[in-house]
């Protein structure tokens, strides 16, 4: 009894900050104490006889920046589809942290739990302005009533301005997203992802169609995100991968062929055979 | 907080928009009744009773157009079955009117044909107006909710959704055609006498119905405007343009679509309920697939995703329809078809789009 009272007193102390309050995670159920933020284990999936994913196992650590490469049809996009709930695998497990079973959640629940995805082809809401695109993506209650009576507060406005500056679209905040250039759309989509404040970002070919300078800026941005967020990048551009990658995973025919630093992976003879070899000859 | 509310509502329109809005409201709520009642019948500005009632009916149809624009223009879900919701609201009102037109204990012929001399159980509560008012919202609302839930959950979209809404209204029509359904069969419900104790043929009742219809359209317009200018409205637009992106942003499109779909059906129900006492009849013909398609033409002609366009489209098409069917009844369908082709080819953004082009705006709606 006395212990309970003491514990209650402890809770009332106003000078104490509780650890559970400090974890500013968008999702309360996320548990990364064991290291990895993403567990993909033994995932298989076939489409009409074509084995897109074949017993694929992959772990991504919290705060890591991971690049996934592989030739066409290696299963990169299908893997992203499985993680984000778009595709259900035939077998295997996928967990976000050690508590959230991704295979039991649907797309919007996964997004709310803190996984953000950037598509290969930039998809922005074309009939909304740049500002409205970001506002829509802002991390907030996604319920009907909150949306109907939503008002952007000062804090949210600051955050929006910050992201607008980061993606270099300050001057175009009132522009319809549909009239942006290709590279600007890519950046707007990345900005929308940042507004969601996800713990894990899945980025599918971020520099496709970008100029050299834009590619450099994107690389800088992704590197700066790692640490606070975990980032998984799927990319074809080997120069780009080399410039950002710490760990590279090579996919081939739906499973992991090799994993390691860029140099280790490039030295692997099997990798050279299926993928890099073609590049360098 | 209250201040914020007021600011939000004031922000529904710019100053010029509010001025136009107030002018339109004044014309409908003040000018029309004055021309009807105060101006002498000899004057060319006099509005006869029949024209007042006709305008009242047009206002009901304009409310339908608003409802359809909300779901089609903003959310990108084409419904070709809104006639069913409209007719359901109409039937609910028709049942109330019919029930109270036989206050002395008798029953209409179509009930006697069923072999009973008393009102069937489902007719009984319609003697109360409060129950009727509730059902005007609930009957179309619940049907739309159930239909929408299964359709949206299965991710039925686009033209497939449009087709099953046609099937919905067609099926409802067949159901209501049956005499056994107990709501008048193919002749429907007519010969109404009183509404809330007032004779429905009385000029004062007619004026009151007209004013209530006008208020319903004004209220409906402001509610729709509030929705489409809110963040919820932007989510709807986003669903229209890139639904999967909305999903990956963490919104559940099912909820948003169901909300706006059900709301749209309820608005149609209200419109139908106000339409029926001004027309004096409701029959299954209102559920014919062609009726629902015509509703889509109103919105397309006026301009999708603008609300104002829907109102204008409903007025233009129905005005022409009244005129053409009076002068050349056979030509109406050809006329409607031509109108639709012209809009599709030359006015992809409708009459409102034409105005915007003239004013050199082009950009946003």
Structure commentary:
The complex is a heterodimer of chains A (281) and B (365). By secondary structure, chain A is an alpha/beta fold. Chain A is built from twelve helices and ten strands. The termini of chain A are far apart. In chain A, 40% of the residues are buried. The model of chain A is unreliable at 17-25 (pLDDT under 50). Chain B has two domains: 1-47, no CATH class; 50-289, no CATH class. Helices cover 70% and strands 2% of the residues of chain B. A two-stranded antiparallel sheet of chain B has the order 1-4. In chain B, strands 2-3 form a two-stranded antiparallel sheet. The A-B interface holds A 84, 86, 107-108, 111-112, 116-117, 119, 123-128, 132, 135-137, 142-144, 147-151, 176, 192, 196 and B 4, 8, 227, 230-232, 234-235, 237-238, 240-242, 244-245, 247-253, 255-256, 259, 363-364.
Give keywords:
heterodimer; A: about 280 residues; alpha/beta; Rossmann fold; four-stranded antiparallel β-sheet; 12 helices; globular; B: about 375 residues; mainly alpha; 2 domains
Largest sheet of chain B: 2 strands, antiparallel
Portion in strands of chain A = 15-25%
Distance between the termini of chain A: 76 Å
Radius of gyration of chain A equals 21 Å
Helix content range of chain B = 55-70%
How much of the polypeptide of chain B forms β-strand, as a percent range?
A: under 5%
- On the 0-100 scale, what is the average pLDDT of chain A? 80
Low-pLDDT segments of chain B? none
The run of helices and strands of chain A is HHEEEHEEHEHHHHEHEHEEHH
Termini Cα gap of chain B: 29 Å
Poorly predicted ranges of chain A: 17-25
User: Which geometry of chain A do the CA atoms define?
Assistant: globular
